[in-house]
Write a structure and sequence with these properties.
Keywords: Aminoacyl-tRNA synthetase, ATP-binding, Cytoplasm, Ligase, Nucleotide-binding, Protein biosynthesis. InterPro entries: aa-tRNA-synth_II, aa-tRNA-synth_II/BPL/LPL, Anticodon-bd, Anticodon-bd_dom_sf, His-tRNA-ligase, HisRS-like_core, HisRS/HisZ, HisRS_anticodon. The chain folds into two domains: about 20-50 and about 85-180 and about 230-365, Bira Bifunctional Protein, Domain 2 (BirA Bifunctional Protein, domain 2, 2-Layer Sandwich), CATH 3.30.930.10; about 380-494, Rossmann fold, CATH 3.40.50. It contains 16 helices and 18 strands. Strands 1-5-6-13-12-11-7-10 form an eight-stranded mixed sheet. A five-stranded mixed sheet has the order 15-14-16-17-18. It has helices spanning about 20-40, 90-100, 140-160, 170-180, 190-200, 200-215, 230-240, 250-260, 265-280, 355-365, 385-400, 415-425, 435-440, 445-455, 460-465, 480-494; strands at about 45, 50-55, 75, 80-85, 105-115, 130-135, 165-170, 215-220, 225, 290, 305-315, 320-335, 350-355, 375-380, 405, 430, 440-445, 470-475. Helix content is about 40%, strand content about 20%. By secondary structure, the protein is an alpha+beta fold.
């Protein structure tokens, strides 16, 4: 007796997801609108490969025989390690350094694509996800950072999120200056604890951050998080900095006071002041783009201004709690990245959008995927010997810009073909049997009209009596009729 073949279980690896047509089309439409803003600002597209040599990814190269901590890696046939890109910025730095002599400076580009993280997946945390970045490499002045912030505000407006977002801006130099003034310049470990505490301001509030700056904080579950152990004077200095009001006319005086005589900190305050002047001059109000000292982003990476786009409308999280939606993208100045490849310093600033997260936000506010999307018109096969004739109809419809397909399934049963068309969300089907052919006509069944009519039907007898609109159309008028029908149904359905 032959051994029965073992069948595989169809299952995705953890941390990866499939995307269906509706999601792909909706996200593509969103990306098209973002591109329009980026290009309006003079940025051009760039595409880099999914793989880079692992050493090009820098800090993600671990101290092991197989470099796979944080990245997915494999060894080439020349025994060099390659990794799937972790973000879109490290490949940009490599590209810029490799083409340094021929590229304009600043080099303004945008890039879209998947990135990969070899990390433990969880709710909303994936191993593959899409980012959409814009960067200006070779631009040293705060004006380039201000432009990034204004461009992100324009993107949010373009996507229908006006009044529902704020671009928050801070500066790494100011943060370092405050830490130095608090006596923490040489205490890296404590400084990191302080920064993590500041980063929790929007979630824990001032009282929670104060506890984390001191001895620590116990949460509602009883878990205790050890604090930074600062004294009262240090805590007060940091809290005065974090709570500085962006709308206060004396904001920059407050920041300057908190960094003391630290030269780097004072330079950061001056940069923020220059950026604010640019925002004001360009008409970006402080409810759209604002200085916010509580912004903390990957501070081992950024070297100057940092910024993030935060959506400000409330949503319900997985625990049933009402929370602010939060960040959908961020970035900042990273003047040290390209210098890994070249001797001279190369200034750079950029912004990265989390595509899936932004798409989810747009769905929540009805700005993405809220229009019904119809499938193709389906031409049914009534007579097997007439396939060439049916295919001609399909070709005519496609040539006229109408989505259309010939039914190519296994069953030639009309009922099953109609069921297929329904699953495809076809706006209409075309039927031509021998009688129609002899009369020079086709039958067009309007499937959308039937669905609209069924919404008002509450009685089974009424349902059985109701029929989707079906009309006879002269064969030579088929294309014109279907174009008109589709336009009408799209108007009625949305």
């Amino acid at each position: 007796m032959a051994k029965k073949a073992k069948r595989l279980t169809p299952i995705l690896p953890r941390g990866f997801v499939d995307r269906d047509p509706d999601e792909i089309i909706a996200v593509d439409a969103m990306i098209h609108r973002i591109k329009a803003v980026y290009e309006r600002y003079g940025f051009d597209p760039l595409e880099t490969p999914l793989f880079e040599y692992t050493e090009s990814l820098g800090k993600f190269l671990p101290d092991t025989d197989r470099p796979n901590a944080g990245v997915f890696s494999l060894q080439d046939d020349d025994e060099q390690w390659m990794s799937l890109r972790y973000d879109l910025t490290a490949p940009l730095a490599r590209y810029f350094a490799q083409n340094f002599e021929t590229l304009p400076k600043p080099f303004r580009s945008y890039r879209q694509g998947y990135v990969f993280r070899n990390e433990k997946p969880g709710p909303g945390r994936f191993r593959q996800f899409m980012q959409f970045d814009a960067d200006s490499v070779g631009a040293p002045d705060p004006a380039a950072d201000a432009e990034m912030c204004m461009m992100m505000a324009d993107v949010m407006d373009e996507l229908g999120l006006s009044g529902k977002f704020v671009v928050r801006v801070n500066n790494r130099k100011v943060l370092d200056g405050v830490l130095a003034a608090a006596g923490l310049a040489d205490d890296t470990n404590t400084s990191l604890i302080v920064l993590r505490a500041i980063d929790k301001m929007d979630r824990l509030g001032i009282d929670g951050v104060k506890l984390l700056l001191g001895e620590g904080r116990e949460d509602d579950s009883g878990d205790f998080t050890k604090g930074a152990g600062l004294n009262e004077e240090q805590i007060n200095r940091i809290l005065a900095y974090v709570t500085a009001d962006a709308d206060d006319a004396n904001l920059f005086d407050v920041l300057a006071e908190q960094v003391g005589d630290n030269e780097q900190g004072q330079q950061g305050v001056a940069e923020l002041k220059e950026m604010q002047a640019l925002f004001d001059a360009a008409g970006y109000s402080r409810d759209k783009v604002k200085i916010d000292p509580s912004v903390v982003r990957g501070l081992e990476y950024y070297t100057g201004p940092v910024f993030e786009a935060e959506l400000t409308f409330p949503v319900t999280n997985e625990k049933g709690q009402t929370v602010i939606f939060g960040s959908v993208g961020g970035g900042g100045r990273y003047d040290g990245l390209v210098s890994r490849f070249r001797a001279e310093a190369v200034p750079a600033t950029g912004f990265s959008i989390g595509v899936s997260r932004l798409a989810h936000a747009l769905q929540l506010v009805g700005e993405l995927g809220n229009k019904e999307r119809f499938g193709p018109v389906v031409v049914l096969i009534m007579d097997k010997d007439q396939i060439a004739n049916y295919q001609k109809m399909v070709a005519e419809l496609r040539a006229a810009g109408v989505r259309a397909e010939l039914y190519l399934g296994q069953s030639k049963n009309m009922g099953k073909q109609m069921k297929y068309a329904d699953r495809r969300n076809a706006p209409a089907v075309v039927i031509e049997g021998s009688e129609e052919r002899d009369a020079g006509e086709v039958q067009v069944k309007d499937l959308v009209a039937g669905k609209i009519a069924s919404k008002d039907i509450t009685d089974n007898a009424e349902w059985r009596a109701a029929r989707p609109a079906q009309v006879s159309v002269k064969r030579e008028n088929l294309v014109e009729h279907l174009k008109s029908l589709i336009e009408q149904n799209e108007t009625q359905s949305n």
